[in-house]
Every structure is written in structure tokens, then in C-alpha cells.
Amino acid sequence: MTIISLDGRSSIGAVRIEQDLLGELAVPADAYFGVQTARALDNFRITDIPLSHFPNFIRALAMVKKAAARANRKLGNLPERLEQAIVAACDEIIAGQWHEHFVVDMIQGGAGTSTNMNANEVIANRALELLGHSRGEYDKLHPNNHVNLSQSTNDVYPTAVRLGILLSYADLTNAMDTLCSALRAKGVEFSHIIKMGRTQMQDAVPMTLGQEFLGFATTVGEDVDRVHELVRLFREVNLGATAIGTGINTDPDYAAMAVAELSEISGESLVLATDLVEATSDTGAFVTFSSVLKRIAVKISKICNDLRLLSSGPRTGFGEINLPARQPGSSIMPGKVNPVIPEVVNQVAYQVIGNDLTVTFAAESGQLQLNAFEPVITFNILQSVRILTRAMGVLTERCVVGITANEAHCRSLVTNSIGIVTALNPYIGYHNATRIAKRALESGRGVTELVLEEGLLTVADLDDILAPENMTAPRRFEQRSAKA
């Protein structure tokens, strides 16, 4: 007889026999999960990433089950003795226990039924122990009849996913805030360092290195507010909708009561959707939230592209900044050090961008009263939140805080660039400035030297016009001409 172990592989050991629609199956005697979870383990060997990989999702599932039990008991549909055992088991899971028994693969068929049953079985078997019974004695307390009372996967699963995101997003925004602070600190530190700005990879006009880093900070910081705004979409849940939104097999007062209980248990202000049929099939909130995760990823990746360019060389590239050396860069080239931290963050961004496309396709593919593809939506969003959070932590701690500037080299590039001729436009005119720029490019001589040679401006005028503070911010100007 096949025995499904805790890791989903066939094994030999002490077992108990459980039965479902398809017949009998051996389950490890020490497992809190049951027969339906065991079948899912055998069916869905896809990613090798189990539900337990996302602890807040497990906690959210337990909170939903606890809320349902409390509501059912208050409505007289669940004996207090069973409710207390279910609640106690849920509290242990919320506290972090038994997560290793949530073993189903994150990507699964059945619209999340295997996830729901994994939770029902773990909670039921732990509750049975608390009541003094053995695991599998479902005549005393049943995963479906008691733990899943007044519920369906189709309201439990999406509610738990939404709550899991609400319990997780603060780590993401905290990581964004920390990265912003680090970038802003570098902006202040580098505020006096003049350098060339570039557009289309060509010299443009002078700026400060500080302005560049403050720009990085702003672009990350503005999306902190976007995340806070969009997670409010997940406060609307369909708990009580059961199978398709009609609330079949529930007390008329159950839905509102269960959502109120869940709000109290989780500490999150949740509201019942006004149209439960629509809410049961709709995945629009996930699409919107995933899109802002992609937006964050794109921005962070662009910053990492810039950091790699600005630190390129060190002698044959831009070489304007130095990234902290984190590991030897080559097995064959001595002394080479690569920008490994920005590189890994770039790769995280690519993954998040791909995850967003998956979420989009999965949301679009929903049919009629349910979207069967919520598991892959859930997996990709939770993964995006996790890896973005970690990537920004690594970028902050292992890269940004240790960046140094090559001030003299930055100034030398400005001095030797024809880009400074733009600052002369208001004083010598675009036509003259264009001619000077062309002569400088062809001859290799400096802009300042050529302007003085043609008598277009004085040394004093040039010193004033080309002062860093006058080239990197707006200023009022007056017409000038060279002295005789």
C-alpha cells in the first residue's frame, strides 16, 4: 500500500488508514494532515514549494477557520466543546506551530481545494488530540463537517489570500522606506560632488551626484504610498459566500458575523463584499496589486542598471562611484570584482515582472462563477512580495550604504565634457554654442578655452556661469559680453 510521507514521497512506516470519495489511503501516523492532503501531495509535485513557505498565509488560513468556528458557535451551529478545540488548534497555528504539516504544493488544481483541506485536516486532527482523541477519529470532530462548517474553498481561500497579503505587505513597505533612507543619505553625502548628467548615454548637462541619488530615493518612495493605497482593496472579502456567492449552507447572519470575528482576530479592518457572487469570481484586486509590484520592480531594476553603469570600469568605464566589494569576480581574471548585488536585484525584478504576466493571464482565464487559477495567482503575488522585500534589504545593506564617490574623477569628466556648453546658451546664443561644441569635439580642446579664444565671454563670466551651483539649479541671468 502506498504511504504518503510528510514531504510527499512514498515511504514505509507507521500509518493510519483514512477514507474519502476515492477510497482508502495510508497516511503517516504522525501527520496532522489527512487523506485529501495526501492525495494532493501525490498529484501536485510541481514547484516543491509548500504552503508552509509563506507563514503569513498559513496564519491567515487559521484565522479564517477560527473566525468561522466562533461565528458558528454563536449561531448555535457548532457545539461549544468542538469550537473551543478548533479555536485552540487555530491559535497554535497562528502562533507558528504545526506549519510543517501544511505540505501541499502552492500550485495545484482545484482552485485551492487542496489548500483548504490541508488546513481543515491539520486543524481537525490537532483539535482531536486536544479533546483526548487520536488523529483520524473524525466521528468525534470532522474536517468537513465541523472545521469547514458554513464554508467553501471558494470563500475561505480568497479570504485567506487577501488576509495573508495584509499581514505581509508591511515588510515590503518597511524595506522600501529603509532603502529610501539609505539613498537619501547618500544624496546628502554627495550633494557637493559635480558630475555630468547623461541622456541617451551621451553627455548632457552637469548635475550633482547628490541630485542623482535623491532622484533614486524619490522614485522608490513614491510607491510606498501606492502600496498602502492598493492593499485596501484586500480588506473586502467574500467570507460567507460559500460555493458561488449565494451563501448556500450558511445562516443568514453568518457572513457578517464571520467577517466581524475575522477582523477582531486578525487586527485588520475587513468588510464583507456587497455582491458576493461578483466577489467570488473577481480577481481584479490581485491584478492591480501585482501591477504595482511590477512597477516597483521596474524602478528598482533601473536604479541597479544605473549603479552598475556608474561604477563600471574601474578604469575603462564611468568609474564615478565605487560599490562595496562583496566577492571575487572571476575564476580566471585576478582582481576582478563584479557588481553582484545590483545584478541579483535585477534578476529579482525580472522574476517579479514575469510573475505579473502570470497573474494577468490567470485572472483573465477565470470562467463563470469562479477563477480556478487562484493558486498560481496567490503563489506569484506572495513570491513577488517576498523576493522584492528581501532584494531591497540586500540592496540597502550590502550595496547602497557602502557606496563611495570618486569626486575628482567626476569633476574631471565635467571639465572635459562639451556638455557644459549648454550653460552658455543664454549668454552666447545657441548658434555660437553649437559652433563651439563642434570645434571642441573636433579639436579635443576645452569649451572654456575656445570661448575665451573667440572673445565671447570673460574669464570672470565663465567662472560664474560654470560654477557648479549655477549649472545644477535654475538661476536668473543677465546678458553679458566679453571685455575689450
Describe this protein's structure:
With 484 residues, this protein is mainly alpha-helical. 55% of the residues lie in helices and 7% in strands. It contains 17 helices and 8 strands. The strands form 4 sheets. Strands 1-2 form a two-stranded antiparallel ribbon. Strands 3-4 form a two-stranded antiparallel ribbon. A hairpin with a 2-residue loop joins β1 and β2.
The Cα radius of gyration reads 31 Å
Number of E strands: 8
Shape: elongated
Number of helices: 17
> Strand fraction band?
5-15%
User: Biggest sheet: strands side by side, in what order?
Assistant: 1-2
- Taking pLDDT < 50 over at least 5 consecutive residues as the criterion, the unreliable ranges are none
User: How does the major sheet shape up?
Assistant: 2 strands, antiparallel
Q: How far apart are the first and last residues' alpha carbons, in Å?
A: 105 Å
Secondary structure class reads mainly alpha
Summarize model confidence as the mean pLDDT: 92
Q: Order of helices and strands, N to C? A: EEHHHHHHEEHEHEHHEHHEHHHHH
Helix share of residues?
Answer: 55-70%
How is the secondary structure organized here?
Blueprint: E1 15-20, E2 23-28, H1 35-43, H2 55-74, H3 80-94, H4 113-130, H5 143-147, H6 153-189, E3 194-199, E4 202-208, H7 209-230, E5 236-237, H8 254-266, E6 271-272, H9 276-281, H10 284-310, E7 321-322, H11 340-364, H12 374-398, E8 404-405, H13 407-415, H14 425-443, H15 447-453, H16 459-465, H17 468-471
Parallel strand pairs: 5-6
Antiparallel strand pairs: 1-2, 3-4, 7-8
Helix pairs in contact: 1-4, 2-3, 2-4, 2-6, 2-8, 3-4, 4-6, 6-7, 6-12, 7-10, 10-11, 10-12, 11-12
